[in-house]
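[User] Once you have settled down, look closely at the record that follows, and write a paragraph about the fold.
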Amino acid sequence: MEPTRKLPRKDWKHIRLYQGVREAISSLPIHFRTETNIAGIMATDLHTLNTVLGATIEEQVVRTMNLLRNTWDPEDRYALFSFVRQAQTFPDVLLRSTASREILLGIELKGWYLLAKEAEPSLRFQTTAAACAKQDLVVVVPWVLGNVIGGSPVLFAPFVESAKYAAEFRNYFWQEVRRTSQDTRITVPEGVTPYPAKSDQILDKPAQDGGGNFGRIARTGLMDDYKAKLDDIPLCGISTVYWRDFLKTFQESTTYASAREALQRLRRRLEGQQHASSASAESALVIVRELERLIDIGSG
């Protein structure tokens, strides 16, 4: 049976805190500030940024959440609590007291570089549902450089989901939705409770996973509508999806001939968008045609 979201009850004593945290997460793109600035990187190397900067972006997101205390704790009821990162166990981020070590909620946090080769987050979430409290969240924060190929990182609206629901839906998708001839059984660890120690066994393990796809929640359908909206975000006047196609073209092209062929495919795709009068597609088409002209000159 398809799982349903089991969110914190409205009479939970920390419900206003929970709602404030979700509101703060939604406002991250407005308030996020960073001293990180990237310059001089080759366009063909941009796809590596998630590996190079991913952890830094996530650390700065945590810092920003603490700076947004007035949003999630307007009455100063949680003065001794702050968001802290922890390594090598679930969740990545805890809202924890510095005095009593009490934990109020957790966040599994993942940065997503929007122009990476894969048009989806690479997050692998294998944590068993029993390790997730109802208030715990999975948060994916998309980002790009301010000037696309340089500048400081800027954020876009995060994806926010119940961690417990994401874990349950992941298993449901693996066993009931996807089409496969493989063994769909999943081994679920026993005796697991929220906020486990690093030594605890908390991962669900599929009987067969030849492609290494178990836990990739972006491939379960949970993020489909969210990803589609991000494809249309204009970056310097051109939609994300066209930037991604453009960069992928040159990552895969090593000769004038292969570059020309890849650009021709992209141009035909863009020309197919003209009926929609997409200003973004038109802008991208102008650039592609000019690149084709330059390649013809360079190879002539």
About this structure: The beta strands are 81-85, 93-97, 103-113, 137-145, 153-155, 159-162, 186-187, 205-206, 234-235, 238-239.
